[in-house]
Write a structure and sequence with these properties.
The protein has helices at residues 68-85, 107-122, 129-139, 192-198, 205-224, 228-247, 258-272, 296-305; strands at residues 5-10, 13-17, 22-24, 29-30, 34-38, 44-51, 58-61, 64-65, 90-97, 151-155, 164-169, 176-182, 278-280, 287-292, 311-315, 322-323. By secondary structure, it is an alpha+beta fold. It folds into two domains: 5-173, Ribosomal Protein S5, domain 2 (2-Layer Sandwich), CATH 3.30.230.10; 176-315, GHMP kinase, C-terminal domain (Alpha-Beta Plaits, 2-Layer Sandwich). A six-stranded mixed β-sheet has the order 8-7-9-6-1-16. The longest helix is centred in the middle third of the chain and has 20 residues, at 205-224. The chain is globular and about 60 Å long. The two termini are 16 Å apart. Bound molecules: ligand DP6. Ligand DP6 binds next to helix 4. The site of ligand DP6 has 16 residues, from helix 4.
Length: 328
């Protein structure tokens, strides 16, 4: 009989090459492969308890009963581990983030990666990393990249089996820092899930998908060779392409605020002035400003001074999602 309870932690990740659009929405098989870096120091901590006395699945998120949509995704993941294990108990899931949710820092990525590890352990399964990554993927695509550690590639694949993420370099490989300029802490107006559904309605998406393997290869090589200039160029190009698709979908979406553009402009100016920095933006107004660790203090200080920036978080490359065996 398994313990029926387990706790796990996972970091969110920032995509260098973005996931936007699916070839199969139900299974979350993406239209393109993607690459990301885990963000150390930012964590989701998730405890799952299955039991015969629990009448229905429950999700407590940051101390509050979660909305129906989050419970629905959680239940789908729990259903997968129930099917594999043969134990059909309901579960209580408690999850906490130490960073603000819904701001473009992907809390769903860390949350579902931690859930995949905790739920499978609680129900007595010992899944390998690709299996955990697939499990997390079906709840939230980017969550599959928070299962392995460091710098991570999600190979798009063609079906459930070959669509999962793996580490291309460990966290210690490269001292990059993500200085996150927080511009708004409000919940984002349109969930990424809805954006993925309409990505193909943009006339630019086909060109973005067709040209993505080149950017993927360039980014992978830049990471392996610790080549910041090459990384900066491809990261900004890929982010701009994703937002071009977002802005030209039907209906069109716009995640940027005036201060988002202000930070983009500043980063470009700082780079012209000799500072090694680049920007990338997920589905929200906040700007992730990447730089080598030696420059992180300077970059954070400049971001704090920038109009419209409310706060600056900074994160080094983070490790894999992990089970905390001593905590129940
Ligand atoms: C802009 O993984 O949040 O952050 O699968 O619907 O949960 P769902 O989408 P999600 O999409 C992430 C979009 C992105 C880019 C990225 O992380 O690659």
């Amino acid at each position: 009989m398994p313990d029926l309870t387990a706790t796990a932690i996972a970091c969110p990740n920032i995509a260098f090459i973005k996931y936007w659009g699916n070839r199969d929405h139900r299974l979350r098989i993406p239209s393109t492969s993607s690459i990301s870096m885990n963000l150390d120091g930012l964590f989701s901590r998730t405890t799952v308890t299955f039991g015969p006395d629990i009448v229905a699945d429950q999700l407590i998120l940051n101390g509050e009963v979660a909305q129906a949509a989050a419970l629905h995704r959680t239940r789908a993941l729990l259903d997968q581990v129930r099917t594999i294990s043969g134990y059909y108990y309901s579960a209580r899931v408690e999850s906490e983030n130490n960073f603000p949710t819904g701001t473009g820092i992907a809390s769903s990525a860390s949350g579902f990666a931690a859930l995949a590890v905790a739920a499978s352990r609680a129900i007595g399964l010992t899944l390998d990393e690709p299996a955990l990554s697939r499990l997390a993927r079906r709840a939230s695509g980017s969550a599959c990249r928070s299962v392995p550690g460091g710098f991570v590639e999600w190979q798009a694949g063609k079906d459930n089996e070959d669509s999962y993420a793996f580490s291309i370099a460990p966290a210690e490989h490269w001292g990059l820092v993500d200085c996150i300029a927080i511009i708004s802490q409000a919940h984002k107006s349109t969930a990424s899930q809805e954006g993925h559904l309409i990505a193909d309605s943009s006339p630019l998406q086909a060109a973005r998908v067709a040209s993505s393997p080149v950017r993927l290869a360039t980014c992978r090589l830049a990471i392996l060779q610790r080549d910041f200039d090459s990384l900066a160029a491809v990261v900004e190009l890929d982010s701009n392409l994703m937002h071009a698709v977002i802005m030209t979908s039907t209906p069109p979406l716009l995640y940027w605020l005036p201060a988002t553009v202000q930070v983009i402009q500043s980063v470009i100016d700082w780079r012209k002035g000799g500072l090694p920095v680049c920007y990338t933006i997920d589905a929200g107004p906040n700007v992730h400003v990447l730089c080598p660790a030696d420059y992180a203090e300077e970059v954070s200080a400049r971001l704090v001074q920038t109009e419209g920036v409310k706060d600056v978080l900074s994160a080094h490359p983070g490790g894999p999602a992990r089970w905390l065996p001593d905590e129940h």
